[in-house]
Each structure stands twice: as C-alpha cells, then as structure tokens.
Design brief:
The structure holds 2 protein chains of 2 kinds. Chain A is mainly β. Helices cover about 0% and strands about 45% of the residues of chain A. Chain A contains no helices and 11 strands. Chain A is globular and about 35 Å long. By secondary structure, chain B is an all-beta fold. The radius of gyration of chain B is 14 Å and the shape is globular. In chain B, strand 7 and strand 8 form a beta hairpin. Classes of the chains: A mainly beta, B mainly beta. Chains A and B meet through strand 5 of A and strand 4, strand 5 and strand 9 of B.
Chain lengths: ~120, ~110
Amino acid sequence: EAGVAQSPRYKIIEKRQSVAFWCNPISGHATLYWYQQILGQGPKLLIQFQNNGVVDDSQLPKDRFSAERLKGVDSTLKIQPAKLEDSAVYLCASSSTRGTNRTYEQYFGPGTRLTVT
Amino acid sequence: KNQVEQSPQSLIILEGKNCTLQCNYTVSPFSNLRWYKQDTGRGPVSLTIMTFSENTKSNGRYTATLDADTKQSSLHITASQLSDSASYICVVSPLGGSARQLTFGSGTQLTVLP
C-alpha cells in the first residue's frame, strides 16, 4: 500500500511570509496527525483529525497556525506569518483508528523541512 | 510530568558490531512503548511495540526489552549494517491517553561506519 505523502519536501521562506504544507494519508485511514519536529528533538503533536473533525488542537499556536481536512482525506497545514522559531520538520502521520494506546500504529510521511530566514 | 530520556545521544560503531540503546521513562500509568527508526530526511518507522506485560520483542536484528518495574527499555541491534545509521526514537503511551499524551524521546543518533 502507498504510504503517507507530503509536499513540498523542502521550503525556505523569510520571516513574516506564509507557507502551506500538504498531506495525503494512507487510503482508508480516518485519523490524521500533524507534528512539528525541531532538530534534535522528538516530534510534538500540533493537531489530530478524525475524518474531517478536529480531535485535539491544544498544542497548535492558533494565532499563526491553521489546519484543515475538508473532505476527510487530504490535509493542509498553514503558517501565517512565519517566525524564525518555526524552522523545523513538519511530519504528517495517519492511523486506521483514533490512535488509541494499544496497537493502532501511526504511519509517518517523509516530512517537510521548513527553514525560516 | 511525563518524560522519556534516551541515551546515549549519539553513538558511532563499526559495521558488524552490536550496540544497545537505552530508554528511561516516567510515564505512569503506562500502556505501551514503541521504538521507531528515523532515517535522515524520512519520517519515523515503527520497529517494535511492547505492552507492560511483554519483556522482549524482536524484529529481525532488532531486539527490544522492557522492564516495567524500573521503567526502562533497551533496543539491541545485532550485527550492525550501514543502513542502520539513523535516529532511534522511544515513544511511550500512557494508559487511556490520547495522541497528544504520547511522549517522544529525543532519540539516539546511530552512525555505523564501514
């Protein structure tokens, strides 16, 4: 089966500019996650969708970050305006259930490396 | 506060050698622990998952152990290959927790030299 797809793979922007990332999860996976991974750290959850509804966005900086999953499949994550500290890899993951503790594994995409100058 | 600490931060070994990576956690109550491999420029890929009742689990040359009493896990790599060069991340899930409550370690960066 095809994996999680993300684009672009790399993006360089200046601070205060806007940027958008796209994610296509594994077919049939109802749950989609966006993570931010700063260099040398583990991923940090930004937002979790179940189909097209938001399950958890408590760690999303809503003053500048937004995400949507309108048709319950693809998702976009937007940053506007970007700050220097947003430089990171943005990972998208999907799972076939709500991603409960036990065995419902998250499958990660390759990520988008964002550099804000 | 739930924490996952991994050691060492980085490790360099020669091809063919064995190595062991460590993961200590404070997550409680505990549900399960996963080890992920993250190649440079790629997303993490799951290697093993263990619940509190499991002591060891193998996936090819990778063997993970878990001591739920001491809250420690290790990942042992046997007969290392150049392709094992990657970051290895330990992730712990609390019992009844959500995805937000997954606690990721910072990873161990393994470099295998020829």
